[in-house]
Amino acid sequence: MSELLIHIGLHRTGSTWFQQTALPDEGTPIVDAWPDRSDLARKIIKPCNADFPADVLRMELDSRCEAVRSRGGIPVLSHERFSGNPSSGAFDMNRTAERLQRLCPDAKILVILRDQQSQLESIWCQAVRIGLYCSANDYLRPHHPGDFRIPHFEPSYLLHDEIVTEYARRFGRERVLALDFELLQKDSIAYMNTICDFIGAEPVTEISQEVKYARPHPLEAAILRRGNLLHRRTSMNPGPPLESEGLYALWKKMALFLSTHAPLRMRRHFQERHEKVIREFIDANDTRIRRSNRRLRDELKVNLTSDEWRF
Predict the structure, then answer these.
(1) CB 3.0 to 4.6 Å from 218: which of 190, 213, 227, 274, for a disulfide?
(2) CB-based contacts of 137: which residues, under 8 Å, 6+ apart?
(3) Smallest Cα–Cα separation from 186: which of 27, 96, 35, 303?
């Protein structure tokens, strides 16, 4: 299937902005072919191998793409879950890549990368927002060596050369565009025009720079996670003692209010403490991360513009 762009994340790299601002924008040539992200994950990511209906999905995807092309657009599939999930160590990333290859082997791939320090800071805060109740230290701490019951965060998630290599192996390096998240942060027009050039589309001249769903401040996250323990059931918190959406909504408002109105010194303290925890984890994996980043820059020719990348 030609003229299809698949956006695969990574997590905390502006995927929500891309899905909710760029794709619906009438000024961009790319159109969301499958806007129901839950349905997309349920049909492509979730099924076990024996239940994966590749032929049926290929027909549905082809129909959706043709509908977009008939209106003069270029179809896009977008889901950050295509790159795996950090809280499960991206254990199924390769399986999802193989499924996407079976469905649309001629697609082009867009992957957005982010320096590991700021990405991991954001990953924990956002995980708290969706139900996690443990501290950043516990989130990053390895499980008992003999405990393999469920996947959990793995340092290998931060080796970004692996995902670029996996998709390049399946689709061809020339069909994989890897961008630094910093480009979106600095200039959304340049960001979108790099994507347009990659897919052979006309450049855009105007687009919103609003980035939605920014992660909570570490102080807000510290308050929120206590409420998750008591009030919110999610896949990362399957058994809270008291499940109440109403109580959680109140707790969430309180966490935002207290964080917003806290003294600047307290907010800075929580921010610095959070950065320190993440930095110590990055330092413990420094050799592997630097090797991965050098490979991205030197071998895979990814333009890593942020000063925060470790080489």
Answers:
(1) 274
(2) 277
(3) 303
CB atoms within 10 A of CB 107: 24
Q: Which candidate, 35, 45, 127, 27, places its Cα nearest to that of 75?
A: 35
**CA proximity to 199, closest of 60, 114, 76, 66:** 76
The encoded tokens of residue 103 equal: 């469905």
CATH number for domain 5-214+285-299, candidates 1.10.340.30, 3.30.470.20, 3.40.50.1820, 3.40.50.300 = 3.40.50.300
Per-residue pLDDT tens digits for 201-214 = 999 998 876 655 57
User: Contact at 8 Å (CB) between 161 and 300?
Assistant: yes
H or E, element range at 140: helix 136-140
CB half-sphere exposure, 121, CA atoms < 13 A? 20
Residues of the chain with pLDDT under 70: 1-2, 209-213
Contact 162, 178 (CB under 8 A): no
Look-up of token digits 């090797």:
291
Domain residue spans of the chain: 5-214+285-299
CA distance 119 to 100: 25
Mind giving me the DSSP string for 175-237? Answer: GEEEEEHHHHHH-HHHHHHHHHHHHT-PPPS-------SPPPPHHHHHHHHHHHHHH--BTTB
The model's pLDDT over 62-121, given as tens digits with 9 standing for 90+, comes to 999 999 999 999 999 999 999 999 999 999 999 999 999 999 999 999 999 999 999 999
